[in-house]
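Deliverable D5.2: sample structural annotation.
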Amino acid sequence: MSIKKTAAVIASGAIMTAGAATAQDDKELLIGGALSLTGIQAPLDTPGFLGAEVAVDYLNENGGILGRQVKFVNIDGKSDPVTVGNVAVELIDRGAELMVAPCDFDFGGPAGREAQEAGIVGISTCASDPLYSSWSLGDKQFTLSMWNTTMGAVAADFACEEKGWKKAYVVTDQFIAYTKSLSKYFVEHYKDIGCEVILEDTYTNGDNDFSAQLSRLQALDEKPDVIFLSSYGQDIGVIIRALREAGIDAPVLGGDAYDDPAMHEGLGEKLGNDVYFVTHAWMGPESHDEMPNFIELYKAKHGEDPESSFVATGWDTIMLMAAAVEAAGTTDGAAVAKALEEGEFDLLTGKLSYSSAEEGHEPDKAAVLTELVKGKPSFMGWRRPETLPKP
């Protein structure tokens, strides 16, 4: 079903229908957002914000949600958990009926907790640590992203089974839950499928000094076939540059934090090779039949092509909310959460279904594998592991 003909990307059997008339039909439906448009989280949240704006315009041009026009108000969370929580409280006080949370547990969790306290559904655009779950945040909280159990397993399957890289050096940035759990699940799955981690190392975000880690790596009796680097922000590029300038040419593998055009540009044609990462989508027709239509809408709104898959997470978060509210016939938090639990959604970021609240609202979702070639991303296809490590 084309996005040019329907007001949401809808799951099989969950086609939107007009809701019953209510006293709120003539009142805007306020969706609050605490996405961080400044600070270290901005490269992930800003694209999501831009994609969400496109979705809201599209919905309003096609009848809104339950016949109500949609208003999306985002207040900059400033990459600060306390600010994010305060922003969520302010938006709920203004009458927000749904909440868009930042793309991370540490930064997004405060918005989810405030949404839960208010009894409304909150969805993070792309938090992937399993801490972003109904177990931690409550029965009305969800994330659009696959969990790091999937992201880590996709990376491990690719390295060990597809490429035959049997020995890995693993570096874990101690920055946030995301960077730590991504390595954890990669290592667990990599070992489970018969490959070996020859050294696990750590890094502290913001150090901009990888010399101690290089010394330990160079002192190994055997060279790694692959380097799994779980880091965040521009530190990823700093570390890759340090590796290459030290003459270490092993392929580098990581997660969705690599999906940052500024990092790709910084590496350039010389250093931006043999780098692979697992992310949410590919901004081209190879990824999803509806992607060209979305890109057309995005260009009409923002005057340029989308730069990363995080743009699609913003669109999908709003469209997922629309689908669930329409299926529920109300914005009541319990009813919308039930619709999300019972639905199956065909999104730009892949088909998605959730487990029950008792099972954590675990997302069942595939991931995209991407390669950097001369500093430019290249689509390698969708991946869905046959088995996953336990969260």
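Annotation notes: The longest helix spans residues 42-61. The longest strand covers residues 196-203.
The annotation will be released with the project's public dataset once the embargo ends.
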